[in-house]
DNA sequence: CGTGGATATTAGAATAGCTCTAAATCAGGA
DNA sequence: TCCTGATTTAGAGCTATTCTAATATCCACG
């Protein structure tokens, strides 16, 4: 019990610290959202976060607008990445390491792929029992300043 | 004048034939939409197609639902590819050859990248005066039947 | 030639994800 | 305590897309 409590507290401290380090004022709502992200599977939608953060009775109620604002802020501060697999919704990925994805059109499942596997994709690193339908490499660039 | 007319007619025949070959019944609306795709830049949105197909007085009026249905059908029949660069809209790409994209976050421009350039991306094949912000490789898979 | 059933098209309503607005709340420095 | 700026909120608004259900078109068969 005591252990569990300690773990929980130190987790919270970590979250608070991470927000601080990233230059994000750690408000109660943002902490609650960050907590949810920590305890969720890796790829989440805004709506999933909204549901989860308000389902549990602990912590503050968080409005939908705040969920969107906070997720957007986390993305801007590189704590999250946005993923667009179809037009109907945005996924947020808590793994900010360079990596890519397998998206299973049949199941909707989004699976990580290590970056270094890219050259071998077509040989052996596919998820089991799947066939490639389409490969899309999107490189987002910005104009050079100056 | 005569030349121009001939060219136009033969273009139409080609379009009709392409739809037939792809197993798409060539209705007047679908032909008009396919025409628009031929004479547009490579990456278009449903709304651009809708505007363009109805701006010219020749050909039938085409409803928005039919534009969406037809574009969806063309995608299913591999005459078009969908591209998701952000959550706000779907692009349709008339180039169905295997290839990828540069997306300029500053300008919204979508630029083709040849598939074979992928391994050299980070060296020299970037669009001029741009910096990489993010690379995303999306591999869409399907469950193996059987 | 009809006619009947499948296919296609349509206008407009509905949906859904996301953003905006304007008011209320909160935090913290003077 | 008061002031100011940042944050949150409910709900309205926006927009791309899909749905609905009525109409039109096509064409094979009698």
Describe it.
The structure is a homodimer of 146-residue chains. In chain A, 37% of the residues lie in helices and 27% in strands. Chain A contains 4 helices and 6 strands; from the N terminus they run ααβααβββββ. Chain A has helices at 2-21, 28-38, 46-55, 64-76; strands at 43-45, 81-86, 89-93, 99-104, 110-114, 130-143. In chain A, strand 4 and strand 5 (110-114) form a beta hairpin. In chain A, helix 2 (28-38) crosses helix 3 (46-55) and helix 3 crosses helix 4. Residues 1-9 of chain A have low confidence and may be disordered. Chain A binds a DNA duplex (30 and 30 nucleotides) through residues 25, 27, 29-30, 45-47, 60-66, 68-69, 87-90.
Features:
37% helix, 146 residues, 27% strand, DNA-binding, alpha+beta, disordered N terminus, homodimer, 3-stranded antiparallel beta sheet
């Amino acid at each position: 019990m005591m252990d569990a409590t300690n773990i929980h507290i130190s987790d919270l401290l970590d979250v608070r610290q991470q927000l601080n380090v990233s230059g994000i004022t750690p408000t109660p709502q943002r902490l609650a959202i960050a907590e949810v992200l920590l305890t969720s599977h890796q790829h989440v939608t805004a709506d999933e976060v909204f549901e989860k953060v308000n389902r549990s009775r602990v912590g503050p109620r968080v409005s939908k607008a705040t969920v969107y604002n906070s997720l957007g802020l986390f993305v801007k501060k590189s704590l999250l990445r946005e993923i667009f697999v179809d037009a109907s919704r945005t996924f947020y990925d808590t793994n900010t390491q360079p990596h890519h994805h397998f998206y299973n059109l049949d199941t909707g499942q989004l699976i990580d792929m290590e970056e270094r596997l890219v050259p071998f994709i077509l040989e052996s690193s596919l998820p089991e029992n799947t066939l490639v339908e389409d490969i899309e490499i999107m490189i987002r660039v910005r104009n050079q300043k100056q």
